[in-house]
């Protein structure tokens, strides 16, 4: 697993932001994510959480500052290499609708030119890991799955090359509350097994408490208010 460091990172979009008094989406953020830990970013909608996450895998380039992966500036990393090293899971998963579950999970291995035997074995292993037995699920299409099952496929796909880092943006947001609780428990189990470094964005405090080793609380402009161990919610 790898450590991530944000070193005085800022992102200003040309159009500014929704909040008039906050010209930058991310403003002078310094933050460390330790190897193997689950760091959860919380904060109000529009405060810059997704922008922060997407600067790690270079979907967004910072305006200033640096993002370091194991000490190396990601701006200098090869984009294909970054894809292999960083898994990415988003709310509506973005599965390819005309590809089967197995084909979706095999996306990055194929991109990297793995041979059939290796890919097949890895796909089967991942589907078992996320609780979708391959004999029942490999040949289904995304529309033949429940929301929670689709989310599991998204996680399996993100884990295909055993990436040291996993970025998750509201990963369980589209799942009903009961299914979400189940997925969160599964996530904790999988995370213990694979030991990936995880950065996860949510607006659900309850989810943050359940999943996080540490919680980073952000305000507008992705200003870091505090990093704390998750607090127990005693009343809601
Ligand atoms: P969060 O994930 O906390 O909801 P975002 O990172 O999505 O916040 O957005 C932070 C701010 O940047 C918001 O004001 C949003 O409108 C703005 N923003 C996000 N993406 C873009 C974009 N591609 N172009 C312009 N402004 C954007
Ligand atoms: P293709 O797209 O080449 O016709 P398939 O649809 O059969 O191939 O499978 C896509 C990928 O998923 C391949 O890498 C294959 O090895 C893998 N795969 C297909 N079915 C299974 C299965 N039941 N268990 C594990 N992996 C599978």
Separation of the first and last Cα atoms: 35 Å
Estimate the mean pLDDT confidence. 89
Which ligands appear in the coordinates? adenosine-5'-diphosphate
Global structural class: alpha/beta
Query: Outline, from the CA principal axes?
Result: globular
Low-confidence parts: none
What's the helix-strand series?
EEEHEEHEHHHHHEHEHEE
**Oligomer classification:** single chain
- Which value, in Å, is the CA radius of gyration? 18 Å
How would you write the strand order of the largest sheet? Answer: 6-7-8-3-9-10
Note the main sheet.
Answer: 6 strands, mixed
**Number of DSSP E strands:** 10
Helix content: 25-40%
What's the tally of helices? 9
